[in-house]
Design a protein that fits this description.
five-stranded mixed barrel; 4 helices; 7 strands; elongated; transmembrane; cell membrane
Length: about 250
């Protein structure tokens, strides 16, 4: 075997390595660019939600029309009027400012007989039952202002416990089951919720204004990570090639 035969594999190996490096570099840069795009999308979403929360409330009919047309109603400010059906309230297990308790979802019967489930707010664990907060059980005609919340299409995750309907403890907001469990016809129930604002209730319970908007925005950090890895790869390869060049014997 000649010296040329020995040299051929050594010449091909750097070419193959170079191709792998270019592929890895392209992947890292693509991931970084994707995170930048996600960053712009997330910033726009956060700004949009903030604008919705700051806007003036609109009548319930307007939100209904938007929902029927397939529009995004989430976090839009709305107002509705009716009477609470207090003996049909549903309890959603929740934590509010470090305290364990429940969000109280109460059906609001509108003038036309339809039902809107309203998240009236938080009560501590010991105040779960209505008799422990009777002053907050409003019976007259009420006007509610709050944020529209979309109906969940299904259980959010397998790690979320199943709802305990018998004990009136819901771990995820299943609107259909909430209504069915208290004998309300599905056809009468408006297909979304409203989270009541922070307007104070008698004796302070339930505590309104509990809507939590938590949209993590770590995309800039992720973008720096991917771009940083791409830069490190370039530096490592450059150093490696420089050292190999320095060790190559002069012909």
């Amino acid at each position: 075997m000649t010296d040329i035969d020995h040299a051929a594999p050594r010449r091909r190996l750097p070419v193959f390595t170079g191709i792998l490096v270019l592929i890895a570099l392209a992947i890292l840069i693509s991931l970084g660019t994707w995170q930048v795009e996600r960053l712009h999308w997330k910033e726009g979403l956060i700004a949009d939600i903030a604008a919705r929360q700051a806007a003036s409330p609109v009548p319930l009919a307007e939100i209904e029309a938007m929902a029927a047309a397939g529009g995004d109603i989430e976090y839009r400010k709305v107002t509705a009027a009716g009477r609470y059906i207090n003996n049909k309230e549903r309890h959603f297990f929740a934590t509010w400012r470090g305290q364990t308790g429940y969000y109280i979802y109460t059906p609001l019967e509108l003038a036309d007989g339809r039902i809107l489930f309203v998240n009236r707010g938080f009560v501590p664990y010991d105040n779960k039952e209505p008799e422990m907060r009777m002053q907050g059980q409003l019976t007259d005609q009420q006007t509610v202002t709050g944020l529209a919340r979309e109906k969940l299409p299904g259980k959010p995750s397998w790690v979320v416990p199943d709802n305990d309907v018998a004990k009136n403890i819901f771990y995820w907001k299943d609107l259909d089951v909430m209504a069915e469990s208290v004998g309300l016809e599905k056809a009468r129930v408006i297909p979304f919720f409203v989270d009541a604002d922070s307007t104070a209730n008698p004796a302070g319970l339930p505590i309104g204004g509990v809507t939590q908007v938590d949209l993590p925005n770590d995309h800039l950090q992720y973008a720096f990570t991917w771009y940083g890895l791409a830069a490190v790869l370039v530096v490592v390869v450059a150093i490696s090639w420089f050292r190999k060049g320095a060790k190559t014997p002069q012909q």
